[in-house]
Amino acid sequence: MTTSTPRHGPAPPPMADSKLFPLGRHSAPPSGDYRWVSPWGGPLRFTHWLAAITITVLIVTGFFINRPYFLTTGGPPQYLMGYIRLTHFVAAGLLVMAGVVRTYWLFAGNQFERLPALFPLRPRDWVNLWKQVKYYLMIEDDHGIHYIGHNPLQQLSYTFTYFVGVVMVVTGFAMYGQAAPGGFWYTLTEPLVLAVGGIQIIRLTHHLSTWWFIIFPIMHVYLVLRKDITEHGGGLSGIFSGGHYIRADIEYVDE
After folding, report:
1. Mean pLDDT to the nearest integer, 198-222
2. Does the residue 160 lie in any domain?
3. What residues make up the domain containing 237?
4. 186 Rama class: left (phi>0) / alpha (psi -120 to 50) / beta
5. How many angstroms separate the Cα of 189 from the Cα of each of 97, 196, 209?
6. Helix axes 184-196, 199-231, angle to 10 degrees
7. What residues contact residue 84 under an 8 Å CB cut-off, 6+ apart?
8. Is 138 left (phi over 0), alpha (psi -120 to 50) or beta?
9. How many domains, in total, are found in the chain?
């Protein structure tokens, strides 16, 4: 279990100060008052990258299962769809495993990783949410608010992403159960299928939810890079090394 507060220090740990993490080493300006913090523990970073990889595999294989774009007039390789489906199911199982670990870390992680950090519960967070939106839209040059962990807009977007992930998993297993009527997954998910109006509604929900995992990473990468460039903290390296630079001369809302 990590400590309840980030580790402070004048310089990053040896791992972050290596060629593997150049952003963490070089993004801090050569002058100015900066300090190093480590808000992201190993379990969170592990589940982040496992989810990123498995979701990519699920999107590619899922679109193939929906419309086999590798098929030609000469016929597909033997058992191609079977291998694609197997890959899809294995990736889904790994994503569920990542979800279980992340759920545990919502209660066992540090103050930036626990459940309260994923919801803008306090009135000041809702005020800061609007300021953050204007800052991202370049309506304001300086929003005047600073978070070490997730700002309110990130809190809402990540929480919504977790929710969509749950929808994807549930609808995915519901479709999986259709292959074996009377089996475990069929019996477990059939009440849901009947409640929403049939398996086609499940398929449509599963397909539409997929697009969130195509759109969200684009926004996510853009905003991470934007913050890295504008605030010079090397935050991008944090998802690899666990830490990054922050300004030492300003106050942070969540510290």
Report:
1. 93
2. yes
3. 22-41+109-247
4. alpha
5. 19, 11, 18
6. 90
7. 61, 64, 65
8. left
9. 1
CA distance 23 to 20: 9
Q: What are phi and psi of 177, to 5 degrees?
A: -65, -20
Q: Distances in Å between the alpha carbon of 79 and those of 62, 83, 204?
A: 16, 6, 26
Q: Is residue 52 part of a domain?
A: no
As to burial, measured by CB atoms within 10 angstroms (0-12 exposed, 13-18 middle, 19+ buried), residue 98 is buried
201 pLDDT more than 80: yes
User: Tokens 């994503």 — which residue?
Assistant: 95
Is 79 within 8 Å of 68 (Cβ atoms)? Answer: no
Average confidence (pLDDT) over 77-101: 90
Residue 84 phi, psi dihedral angles, 5° rounding: -65, -45
For residue 176, give the CATH number of its domain.
Answer: 1.20.950
Calpha distance 127→140 (Å, rounded): 14
Each residue's pLDDT tens digit, 123-167 = 878 888 888 888 877 777 766 778 888 888 888 888 899 999 999
H-assigned helices in the chain: 22-26, 42-66, 80-108, 123-136, 152-177, 184-196, 199-231, 238-241
**pLDDT tens digits, one per residue of 56-71:** 999 999 999 888 876 6
CA dist 31 and 120 (Å) reads: 34
Tokens standing for 122? 């306090």
Q: How much is the average pLDDT of 6-21? A: 46
Residue 74 within any structural domain of the chain: no
Give the distance from CA 124 to its chain's centroid.
24
Cβ count near 183 (within 10 Å): 12
Tell me if 116 is assigned to some domain: yes
Quote the CA–CA distance of 24 and 22 in Å, as a whole number: 5
Q: Tokens 């769809």 map to which residue?
A: 81
